[in-house]
Amino acid sequence: MHTLTPLSWQHVQLTSGFWYERQLINARVTIPTVYRRCGETGRLAAWRLDWKPGMPNEPHVFWDSDVAKWLEAAAYSLITHPNAEIEQRVEDLIALIARAQQPDGYLNTHFTVVRPQLRWTNLRDGHELYCAGHLMEAAVAHYQATGREHFLQVACRYADYIAKVFGTGEKQRRGYCGHEEIELALVKLSRATGTRRYLELAKYFVEERGRQPHYFDLEAAARGENPHDYWAKTHEYTQSHVPVREQRVPVGHAVRGMYLYCAMADLAAEYDDHELLALCRNLFQHVAERRMYVTGGLGSSRANEGYTSDYDLPNETAYAETCAAIALCLCAHRMLQIEADGVYADVLERALFNGVLSGVALAGDTFFYENPLASRGNHHRWKWHHCSCCPPNIARLLAAFGQFIYSQREDELYVHLYAASRAHFKLDKHAITLSQETNYPWDEHVRLRFHLEAPAEFTLALRIPTWCRAAELKINDETVPLYAALQRGYVCVRRLWESNEVVELRLPMPIERVYAPPEVAANRGRVALQAGPLVYCLEEADNGKNLNDLFLPRNAKLTAQFEKGLLGGVAMISGMAQRRVASDYEGALYRSAPPRYEQVSIKAIPYFAWDNRTPGEMLVWMRGE
Amino acid sequence: MHTLTPLSWQHVQLTSGFWYERQLINARVTIPTVYRRCGETGRLAAWRLDWKPGMPNEPHVFWDSDVAKWLEAAAYSLITHPNAEIEQRVEDLIALIARAQQPDGYLNTHFTVVRPQLRWTNLRDGHELYCAGHLMEAAVAHYQATGREHFLQVACRYADYIAKVFGTGEKQRRGYCGHEEIELALVKLSRATGTRRYLELAKYFVEERGRQPHYFDLEAAARGENPHDYWAKTHEYTQSHVPVREQRVPVGHAVRGMYLYCAMADLAAEYDDHELLALCRNLFQHVAERRMYVTGGLGSSRANEGYTSDYDLPNETAYAETCAAIALCLCAHRMLQIEADGVYADVLERALFNGVLSGVALAGDTFFYENPLASRGNHHRWKWHHCSCCPPNIARLLAAFGQFIYSQREDELYVHLYAASRAHFKLDKHAITLSQETNYPWDEHVRLRFHLEAPAEFTLALRIPTWCRAAELKINDETVPLYAALQRGYVCVRRLWESNEVVELRLPMPIERVYAPPEVAANRGRVALQAGPLVYCLEEADNGKNLNDLFLPRNAKLTAQFEKGLLGGVAMISGMAQRRVASDYEGALYRSAPPRYEQVSIKAIPYFAWDNRTPGEMLVWMRGE
Fold first, then answer.
1. ipTM over cut 0.90
2. pLDDT > 90? residue A406
3. Omega of the bond leading into B606 within 30 degrees of 0 (cis)
4. Are the Cβ atoms of B514 and A587 closer than 8 angstroms?
5. Are residues A455 and A526 located together in one domain of the fold?
6. pTM score, two decimals?
């Protein structure tokens, strides 16, 4: 396939502004915080393999993945925010992990010290291959950041061992993991090492999934359990209800599903598999068009941490796990490379600015696991969680943020996201430095400049977000017609570029009212506010209690103003709305006098910044028209 | 206390119209149906006491109460709808029950044949005294209906035995039942037999409730359980978290609570206890003003089948058990006798016409346990339920419906409800026959006539429902000023009445829009329709799917029309509203184009009559203004 290649996080440096600030806090606060919490909870010590029954901090089945994601985040950060102390911790931890590897290559704390006799006996629930996948991703990141191969070798030894254990051979187990992750990790490992065996193992895991007789049923029976007693009740939970190529609808646990679709996209690209690509496209589209919150959050139900039915998007009880929004970004990013279509960049941007970023406090040290779109005031960030997948996941995403901004393909350069940055790359043999200056999303101006050794002919493809209907493009002060030339969300300018020419893009961000389709019962008679890529919300701190008493009339005028001192600097939307008068009640609960409304001013802040002040109510979809 | 006395069901005959029809179907269909289901499920055979472990139909702890409530219903019906076959079944069943009574007076199928060793060891969950209470109510009804004393004697022997077992004496158990019922039953038994000991036992059960050390904790510990492992987590569930006289807020299981408040009201009247009365008044008021559905339903949560917090009244997940609405009627009726205040009659009427009556199908043979105020089309009546408290409960309520209509006190006659009926009674030594002619609630006219042996001076107190703001009263064609004379919801006319004088009351029933206070989150931006005492709802059968796409503007004109052929004859409300256009979607889930609305006609039917046609969606609180 004629895919794009992302400019790697190694070659894209954020230089100022919105994402720079997030990445800085991530490096300074979040990464050290996650390390400390991993230490406090025993996740680091677990690798010493000296836990004994009766001791506290029994290593849990998914602990290895938390540590691996931290390592991955720390590795990325070694390049963007070098820090000797972090580097030392990384190396010490890798040494500890290397020593924990068993002679056969196996590497898992829980199944080595807690239940050694149960290795590979419960792939459905045990997270064993999932943890392995995160170790592989961490090892690849560490190798790319440092050039040192020792961690990568540990990961390869483990992958080699897994390749021996699993497969369709006579003495092999025909299993796969209940929590997808190793599939995409093996593709990464294959690409980093050039080892095709890992790619084939990834393909095996994807293709084997959901076949009959069902592996999870067989292994349950082998454990002496009745497969029908499965706590999740359905193999849809793990996307193994039918073989992957028969899956037409996104089902089950949202993170697991998106990680599977990531691997499907990777394999489609690697094997030039158009059937797999079409499946992946349809699944992604189904999510984006019927099962995604306006914040890019996924998962309507706590019960399965995942999907329920089309258009079932309750606000207060939204699960919308931070990891699911991150997984959506990872999948959108992969599909974007294959299809070069702005619809993926739109979803990527929506999730990044809203449902992902809400997962971490502005201060970087507390976290949301769930990201509801309405709260009565009882939902707050926590320091840690027994299931702590989200904090290290957001840490690794922010640390490698640079990878999302640009892609290249032969003599084309794609700009997907607008963020002040500097990128160094080779395009069609031209060494290029690109600087992007912008205060996006607080300002509509973006300015790009290439530094070239000599004039070079290539195509610059600039994404025009779907929310922007009046973008303007100038090159060296000359207006370039834009909307007529728009192809799949990108305006492509092919010319002979000279050094220091100035590309100026203006992306006006008027305040938009957003409506959900009638099928979304929760949002009937409701409206959300969006400005540029940012979804807004009302908070009690600005609007008092009972946010659902507010009503936004169609003609209410709204204005946005950047407030430097507010929430680290955000644009606030202000305007007049109606508030139902809390009437002087005289007993009767129900009465025929219609409610009265008074004019009140309202203020909305970006959704990602909520719950960073006095705790209280929050509402994204307000009553209105 | 100067309380009213209800004219008994024995002396009030329904003659035509709304409640007559319901009582007829109750006698002809519901009572035989409940008997048949009790037979099919083993509830009748259980009284043979020949169940052995391993046999099907193990008698459940609350089965006795289902049978007892059927007996009570059948006994009332022997007077209003004499039926030799039913009478024979009643007598056979009573004989069976009498033979099941143990030598010491104990009478319970489950704890005699299934767990004989566990008698009185789990009052919290075992329903033992609750079942005893229902047997007592049934025995009193049978005695009053037939004058025969044998069942009453069985009940008295059981009550005598219970009075020996429970109390504050040295060798007595200081227990009480987890499910209130026996308290109000003992008051009935005391009144029927003139035995003060039963009244005192009722008082003991009420006063002992919730004292420390907590009896349920002590008995749990005695069973070898940790009291903290109580499945309901809190003694609020059984209203025993604090002593009754310290209870300020209605809590826990709604039926249990209302049965307790019934007994509190009874005891307040019997003992002239104004403190207890004030408590009861406040608890009732708290329910009616903050925790009651517009249908008179109670219980917002399935988890405790009861209360959550003030104004928490979700529609689709409303529990609103039929029995809870019935219990509310029983309590309102008792408070009405004590306070002679229309607020209780208003609640009584609201619950009877809506949340109670919805519990049984128009055909009388299927039942709702829960009565939600909105349904996506998946809530339907069932033939039977493992917990079948509601069908016999509604059967006994309808069979004794006459008791709710009138009360007397010295030379005053109160008319609480409007229903075509004939009543025979003595008022201040005058023998009076009162005939009430009306087609209420389908018609606004009520016509009362007294048949007197000689002219008699007395007061006629007519209730003017709060929903009626333009009532008119004429006596012998002469208009009587009404609203100026209104006292606590009643207009009182004192005069020397002659036989066959005509009292004509007109109660106009315009269609009213009903609004909930802003505190009720579920009903923000929503409106319900009511005409007279009837709450209306939209059904899919009349309005298509997606009822929440409809919006009722303030100026929409609505008209009501009685439809003879519809649902056994009901008034239907029609009018124009707006329906959100289900737009042709082109991918994007969220967009800035506001929704479009089209004019459509809507039709609403009385809530009690829903789910009697093609199954589908239902909605009481529609979007509107």
1. no
2. yes
3. no
4. no
5. no
6. 0.84
